[in-house]
Amino acid sequence: MIIFFGVKKSKIGVATIRENTVCSHCGTEKSFQGIIYNSYFHVFWIPIISVGKSREVTCGHCKKRYDDSEIPDNIRVALDRAVEKSNVKTPKWHSFGCLAIFFMFALSLTISLFAFIGDYFFTNDESEVTTEINTIYQPKEKEVEKLIITPKKEPEKSKPALDWEEKLRNIMGNSTMSPGLIKEPVSYNIKNCLEPNLSFIEPRSINYITEINNDKILVLIELSDYEKYTEKQRNEIFKKVETCTKTVLKDVSYDTYIGVYDYYDFYYQKALKRVVKERKEIGDSLLKDFFE
Fold first, then answer.
1. What domain range includes position 23?
2. pLDDT confidence band for 134 (50 / 70 / 90)
3. Is the residue at 126 inside a domain?
4. Is the model's pTM score more than 0.70?
5. Residue (of 191, 190, 186) closest to 252 by Cα position
6. In this structure, what DSSP letter does residue 136 have?
7. Per-residue pLDDT tens for 278-288?
8. Final residue before a domain boundary, out of 49, 70, 90
């Protein structure tokens, strides 16, 4: 039996460094942006438990990137303060498997405990009733059996279903800069169509994820440095995203939903014939229809 397991990393937040820092590569001041990742152990791609956070900083001017171990001390101090202010928290779903195992263990223990207590009291009650009856008259065997009452077990409560916003957050949390052709063919082809035609975009700043729900498909593209683009560049991005999506999906019949976002704020949404080009929080998303 082949078991697929390992450690996977996903982006959980962005922290803009506003303190007086200088890029040693290009000399630009206050140009750094920190990205926070969280790693989790998974089995069959089901997250079991969070194993720690990591960070990187990127210069918005020259795109010089520093991994966690390479960040200079003066920038690290400023990054620590920016991360603290941004209040980035580890997503609960990163420890879903651990919580599920604990829940099942606790449920089994509770059921076993109640079964033991019920069996104990039931046995004692049956013995007392039978003894009392025997002191008055000699009952038939079937009459004694009628006095035995089997305690009812409490039905197990089903887990509450996730609402559409939580489902959308979970999908967004699995976005990646390098979608594979086998697992993410739509995202893979959109990436190869989009990035070569947008020369002003840094490829490492784009994440992709695609989800299918029956006859619907959801295409999400995350731009971590969206605020740095001009209005003209943003409109060019929206147009190219829509064009590439149509090109990739031209041979399949899906109701298409598109979202371009930065962290959990959407800047472009397309749901069937409706289009919104303004900043919207996830709760105002047109993409709700995808989950219905």
1. 5-90
2. very low
3. no
4. no
5. 186
6. T
7. 888 888 888 98
8. 90
